[in-house]
């Protein structure tokens, strides 16, 4: 098995421990050294990657917003958090540490300059000197770790609320013909002027490695010249084709990908999955695929593209790995603990087998022990799909927790596996489908995003866990705490073990309070 860490089954003495940790670190370094150093040199087009090496050519870390990575919560901040302060930078750099060690090649995070309100002149958004200094530091730290930064581009939505308030000419229409709250009209050349000015300003500021284009998360214009003419998929493809051509004309080397969120209504089909593209809709996607490097079918509630159609694309196909937690910035960073390394491994492999060659994998606050484990395991699996989840999990535990014995390493890896199965293994699929109109997600956020006060960890409530599931999960976590109390002295990184114990303790306390209240 390539890059496999072979751990002997005997206890380690002082010298053996050094060899043990040295071997583990070397294996992680080999993964990173073996992957391509950066995107292809300028002047080259990104090729359509067909099965070759047993790895993802495009493992991308997704913020999704830069403050989703912060290790310090903002308990009163509505989503998405707009600031870029020292805590924002610290959290992003810590995420880069994990990503660099785990084989990610890119970081993609919205909110570098603005969230919903770019000014009409665009360029003044880039004149905040303290913010610019922090961004310079972020780009420098990314380069040190051989990670390219991605420019997230809301295409006619996400970022233009102030513009459409102050320039009524570019405001789009909703399906009923009313003024759209967030979308510019794609049929207006004046709207394109804002888009091109934003692209020009951003690319002049920093050396981005690629661009993430997202045109429908907050809706899109449905006037007779936009979606009213081409349908939602046809219109969004048309926007992305034009923007991609503009980007490639400026810099041929840019990795350009399209995110198709909200192109098709989120509703159940007879088979219980998210609505898929029709053949006519996919015809538009095929044309788009001639202009971009990756078509990202993230899979929030299922995939739009039937697996048998993926080989027809003229570009690479990507997903978000099949399951991810979306982090609320108002949550205490240790008040939830949701590891899923086994499921991450299985789903990343499943998507690769279906044709995915890119993965836009959600990150989060790395101070949270489960977030760190999930990101580190997923990155390593994407770089070597022949490895098992158990093998990689033990490698990550060894690298981060610095166990003094093999037994301690295996015991801690076993604790993470028990927590994962103790939670996800008690989900009630039928209750989730009835409540959320979807099969197993996809995107999983067990708490609200909008608001101005701290959130509750609702992932412990119905429909995710019922009364019986909560009681059993509580017992499982208490058993894990007992294991940790017995082995915590066997790890050199006492702070990490302490954070894990704190997160488990908080979760048990919340469960006990909820169970007592409900009964």
What would your notes on this structure say?
The protein is of the alpha/beta class and 519 residues long. Helix content is 44%, strand content 11%. It has 14 helices and 12 strands. The strands form 3 sheets. Strands 1-2-3-6-7-8-9-11 form an 8-stranded parallel β-barrel, surrounded by 5 helices. The radius of gyration is 23 Å and the shape is globular. The N terminus is likely disordered.
Label this structure with key terms:
519 residues, TIM Barrel, two-stranded antiparallel sheet, 12 strands, 11% strand, disordered N terminus
Output mean pLDDT: 89
Q: Based on DSSP secondary structure assignment, what is the total number of beta strands? A: 12
Q: Biggest β-sheet: count, sense, barrel?
A: 8 strands, parallel, barrel
Structural class by secondary-structure content: alpha/beta
The CATH topology is: TIM Barrel
Report how far the terminal alpha carbons are from each other. Answer: 51 Å
Elements, N to C (H/E): HEHEHEHEEHEHEHEEEHEHHHHEHH
Shape: globular
Q: What is the name of the CATH architecture? A: Alpha-Beta Barrel
CATH top level assignment: Alpha Beta
Q: What is the quaternary state of this protein?
A: single chain
Give the total of domains: 1
Number of helices: 14
Strand content: 5-15%
Tell me the Rg in angstroms: 23 Å
Strand order of the largest sheet: 1-2-3-6-7-8-9-11
Q: What would CATH call the homologous superfamily?
A: Glycosidases
Helix fraction?
40-55%
Show unreliable segments: 1-25, 27-44
């Amino acid at each position: 098995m390539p890059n496999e860490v072979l751990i002997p089954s005997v206890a380690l003495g002082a010298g053996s421990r050094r060899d043990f940790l040295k071997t583990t670190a070397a294996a992680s370094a080999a993964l990173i050294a073996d992957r391509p150093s950066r995107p292809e040199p300028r002047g080259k087009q990104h090729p359509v990657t067909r099965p070759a090496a047993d790895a993802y050519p495009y493992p991308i870390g997704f913020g999704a917003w830069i403050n989703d990575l912060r290790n310090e919560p903002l308990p009163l901040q509505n989503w998405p958090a707009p600031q870029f302060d020292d805590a924002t930078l610290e959290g992003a750099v810590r995420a880069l540490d994990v990503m660099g060690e785990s084989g990610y090649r890119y970081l993609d995070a919205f909110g570098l300059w603005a969230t919903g309100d770019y000014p009409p002149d665009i360029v003044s958004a880039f004149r905040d000197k303290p913010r610019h200094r922090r961004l310079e530091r972020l780009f420098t730290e990314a380069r040190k770790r051989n990670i390219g930064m991605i420019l997230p581009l809301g295409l006619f939505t996400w970022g233009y609320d102030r513009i459409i308030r102050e320039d009524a000419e570019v405001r789009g229409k909703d399906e009923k013909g009313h003024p759209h709250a967030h979308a510019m009209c794609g049929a207006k050349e004046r709207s394109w002027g804002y888009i091109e000015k934003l692209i020009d300003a951003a690319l002049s500021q920093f050396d981005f490695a690629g661009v993430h284009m997202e045109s429908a998360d907050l809706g899109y214009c449905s006037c007779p010249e936009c979606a009213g003419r081409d349908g939602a998929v046809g219109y969004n493809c048309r926007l992305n084709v034009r923007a991609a051509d503009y980007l490639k004309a400026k810099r041929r080397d840019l990795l350009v990908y399209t995110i198709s969120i909200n192109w098709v209504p989120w509703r159940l089909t007879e088979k219980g999955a998210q609505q898929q593209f029709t053949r006519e809709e996919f015809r538009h996607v095929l044309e788009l695929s001639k202009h971009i490097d990756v078509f990202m079918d993230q899979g929030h509630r299922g995939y739009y593209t039937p697996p048998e159609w993926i080989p027809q694309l003229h570009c690479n196909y990507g997903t978000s790995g099949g399951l991810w937690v979306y982090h609320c910035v108002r949550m205490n960073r240790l008040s939830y603990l949701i590891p899923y390394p086994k499921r991450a491994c299985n789903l990343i492999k499943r998507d690769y087998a279906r044709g995915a060659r890119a993965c836009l994998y959600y990150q989060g606050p790395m101070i949270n022990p489960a977030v760190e484990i999930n990101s580190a395991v997923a990155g390593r699996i994407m770089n070597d799909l022949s490895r098992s989840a158990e093998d990689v999990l033990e490698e990550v535990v060894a690298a981060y927790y610095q166990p003094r014995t093999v037994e301690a390493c295996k015991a801690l890896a076993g604790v993470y596996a028990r927590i994962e199965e103790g939670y996800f293994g008690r989900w009630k699929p039928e209750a989730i489908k009835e409540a959320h109109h979807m099969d197993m997600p996809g995107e999983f956020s067990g708490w609200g995003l909008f608001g101005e006060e701290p959130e509750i960890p609702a992932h412990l409530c119905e429909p995710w866990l019922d009364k019986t599931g909560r009681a059993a999960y509580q017992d499982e976590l208490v058993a894990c705490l007992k294991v940790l109390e017995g082995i915590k002295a066997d790890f050199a990184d006492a702070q990490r073990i302490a954070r894990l114990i704190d997160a488990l303790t908080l979760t048990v306390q919340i469960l006990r309070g909820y169970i007592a209240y409900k009964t």
